[in-house]
Amino acid sequence: MKIPDEFQHLTPYNMNSYTDSFVSGKQQKYIELQYYRDENSLKFYARVLFHVETQGAPGIVHGGAIASVLDETMGAVSFLNKMPAVTASLTVNYHRPLPVEKTVYIITQVEKTEGRKIYIIGKMVDKNQRLFADSKGIFVKVPNERIGL
Ligand SMILES: CCCCCCCCCC(=O)SCCNC(=O)CCNC(=O)[C@H](O)C(C)(C)COP(=O)(O)OP(=O)(O)OC[C@H]1O[C@@H](n2cnc3c(N)ncnc32)[C@H](O)[C@@H]1OP(=O)(O)O
C-alpha cells in the first residue's frame, strides 16, 4: 500500500498507556488508529481509518469524529514533547468530504510556544497528499495533576 513519503522512516508509537481516551482507548472500535513518532522533530503522526459507524451523512465521516482525532493527535504532540496541555481553542477546516473506510494520514506539529500557550497545527491527507482537513489550536500547559498524570 502506498503511504506518504513523510511516513516512510517513522516508527510506530504505542499509546497503550493511555487507555481511557474515547479516541485512543482499546474500547474504541469505530476508528482504527496507528500512531507514529519522529523522535527528532516536534511532529506526531497517525494513520486513521474511520469505519462506517462514524458517518454523519451516508458514507461521509462526521466532522466531529475528524475533529476528535485531530484534537487527540495535536494534544499528543504536546505531551510527547514534555508539555502536558489541554485544548483551549481548536479550529478545523474541512476541505472535502472524507468517505468512510478510506485510510488517511495525520501530521501534527508544534509551531511555537508563548509562555503557557502552545500553538499546534495539524493536517489530514490521503496517500496522494490530497487535503481533507487541516486544523490549528492553542493548547495551554497545565500542571500534571490537572490531567491525572
Ligand atoms: C500521550 C497522551 C496524549 C494525550 C492527548 C490528549 C488530547 C486531548 C486534548 C483535549 O481535548 S483537553 C480537553 C478539552 N479542553 C479542556 O477541557 C480545557 C478547558 N479549559 C481550561 O482548563 C482552561 O480554560 C485553560 C487551562 C485552557 C486556561 O485556564 P487557566 O486559568 O489555566 O489559564 P489562563 O486563563 O490564565 O490562560 C493562560 C493563557 O492561555 C490563554 N488562553 C486561555 N484560554 C484561551 C483560549 N480559549 N484561546 C486562546 N488563548 C487562551 C490566556 O489568554 C493566557 O495567555 P497569556 O499567558 O498570554 O495571558
UniProtKB/TrEMBL annotation:
GO terms for molecular function: thiolester hydrolase activity. Its EC number is 3.1.2.2. GO terms for cellular component: cytoplasm; membrane. One of its GO terms (biological process) is fatty acid metabolic process. It catalyses: hexadecanoyl-CoA + H2O = hexadecanoate + CoA + H(+); dodecanoyl-CoA + H2O = dodecanoate + CoA + H(+); octanoyl-CoA + H2O = octanoate + CoA + H(+); (5Z,8Z,11Z,14Z)-eicosatetraenoyl-CoA + H2O = (5Z,8Z,11Z,14Z)-eicosatetraenoate + CoA + H(+). The keyword DNA damage does not apply. This is Acyl-coenzyme A thioesterase THEM4.
